[in-house]
Amino acid sequence: MQTTGTHFNYYQVCKRKLWLFANGISMEHTSDLVYEGNLIHEESYPQRSSKYEEVELDGIKVDFYDARKKVIHEIKKSDKMERAHEWQLKYYLYVFEKNGIVGVTGILEYPVLRKTDAIVLSDIDRETIRTMETEIQAIIENEECPLLEKKRICKNCSYYDFCYSTEEEE
């Protein structure tokens, strides 16, 4: 299976979520938070669709790519999962580079927070990404779903009901 940006993001957040998503169990369509994030993506920068491109390449789909300046713009609702967002964008930079598009940088944008973060890809990041790709594939190809790890972020996850349906109330 080809690794995607979503796989990379979920790998940072929750291995169980990664496995479920990669194995065809998708809960995002039931989540109000996911819907809200999609609205922010569509509504925040309406002028961009005429100026920049949405690019699909080797299993990734970047929000906006400025080909002239070689900048990938990735839009997110909140910075609560900032580390996952950074690695997802670094993975996009890595895929562009693997396809001969060198010198690309990234900008993580949080329109609701009015915050941006510049992202670049280092040699250490490239090595880390190769390791992560191997680990992601191992998780995805495993016959069994990873065990539930209870985290603070679980309550806002689109998989919450799925993961906690058999848990007893505390």
Detailed description of the structure:
- The chain is an alpha+beta fold.
- The mean pLDDT is 86.
- It has one domain: Lambda Exonuclease, Chain A (Alpha-Beta Complex).
- The protein has a 5-stranded mixed β-sheet.
- The longest helix has 19 residues.
Summary of the model, kept short:
This protein has 170 residues and is of the alpha+beta class. It is built from 7 helices and 5 strands.
What is the SS-derived class?
A: alpha+beta
How much of the sequence is in beta strands? Answer: 15-25%
Largest sheet: 5 strands, mixed
Number of helices: 7
Q: Which CATH class is shown?
A: Alpha Beta
* Amino-to-carboxy terminus distance: 39 Å
CATH domain topology: Lambda Exonuclease, Chain A
Question: Radius of gyration, rounded?
Answer: 17 Å
Net shape: globular
- Placed side by side, the strands forming the largest sheet appear as 1-2-3-4-5
Average pLDDT confidence is 86
Helix content: 40-55%
CATH architecture assignment: Alpha-Beta Complex
Q: How many strand elements?
A: 5
Order of helices and strands: HHHHEEEHEEHH
Topology:
Blueprint: H1 5-13, H2 15-22, H3 32-44, H4 48-51, E1 53-57, E2 60-66, E3 71-75, H5 82-98, E4 105-110, E5 115-119, H6 123-141, H7 160-164
Parallel strand pairs: 3-4
Antiparallel strand pairs: 1-2, 2-3, 4-5
Helix pairs in contact: 1-2, 1-5, 2-6
Features:
globular, 170 residues, Lambda Exonuclease, Chain A, alpha+beta, 5-stranded mixed sheet, single chain, 5 strands
